[in-house]
Amino acid sequence: MNTTISTSEWQIMRVIWTLGEATSNQIIRILCAETDWQPSTVKTLITRLIKKGIISHNGAARDRIYTATITEKVAMVDTLSTTLHEMCAMCVGDALVNALADTPLSQTDISHLQALLAKKSKTAPPTIACNCIPKGWEACHDDREKK
Amino acid sequence: MNTTISTSEWQIMRVIWTLGEATSNQIIRILCAETDWQPSTVKTLITRLIKKGIISHNGAARDRIYTATITEKVAMVDTLSTTLHEMCAMCVGDALVNALADTPLSQTDISHLQALLAKKSKTAPPTIACNCIPKGWEACHDDREKK
DNA sequence: TTTTTAAGTTTACAGTTGTAAACTATAGAT
DNA sequence: ATCTATAGTTTACAACTGTAAACTTAAAAA
């Protein structure tokens, strides 16, 4: 089961997660109002999400009720973690500072993040090594120099 | 100029960013050792990145030197911001706490993040509203109930 | 009962991505 | 001068995405 949610599919999921459960009619009405999609586009995306196993429905032949098979939180944490792990570990902290500067956070969010950081700082290393190229391969720099 | 960097292309970029500049030979040697890619795969990805304008090279016909046209930081912040904005604003904070729990951060990273959070907390609202469905559309819930 | 509406299914089609073989041409080795 | 290795270019091909029209069928309206 491919658990990758594409950008467009993500929109469908947000509606379903927020409403808890939804009919295609609801999803179509909401998303066609917010985006310039046609109803067909939403239908296609719903079908793909079903095929991917990310949503399911009560067996009705019509006016089905769709629900998510994974929680919003799991999907979000998963996506974020994947993105962060795709990047240079040494640079992630700095990038986060810059990305979060522009991200709305509530007082509660901030408190929770502060608590996490306080805890992490107890065991955090002074520096994180770059993990973009394996150690020893710095020798690659010499390749050109020897010419 | 399409500035989207795919997952595979990201690997190429990390090598170039880390070395500052690199020949295809270096990129191929490093990535073929780290992944199970063939040299051709790396060549294709380099070509695509050139076409996208994300890297460029000195005009040499052979043994070109490739460099990035955007900094690693810009690319990272951009990617992170895009990802965060794709998600429910109300849930982002919570997802971050969970994603960061598993992300290595240095003491310095943590200090910088703490400074940012301290600053943000001065003006942060008590809560962030869900922005998954437009206000007023909660009426969608009623659709099914009226049947 | 006939018509209309809309939910779900099929088909479409181009662009992106992952992955790579084959081909071309040239710089360096012999 | 000839050969060889390899850097760069072309071609390939399936899966995934974005976007949507067309078709089918059943429920609701007239």
UniProtKB/TrEMBL annotation, chains A, B:
The keyword Flavoprotein does not apply. The keyword Transcription applies. GO terms for biological process: negative regulation of DNA-templated transcription. It comes from the Bacteria. Keywords: DNA-binding, Transcription, Transcription regulation. InterPro entries: BlaI_family, Cu_transp_CopY/TcrY, WH-like_DNA-bd_sf, WH_DNA-bd_sf. GO terms for molecular function: DNA binding. Coiled coil: none annotated. Belongs to the BlaI transcriptional regulatory family. This is CopY/TcrY family copper transport repressor. It comes from Leuconostoc pseudomesenteroides. The lineage of its organism: Bacteria, Bacillati, Bacillota, Bacilli, Lactobacillales.
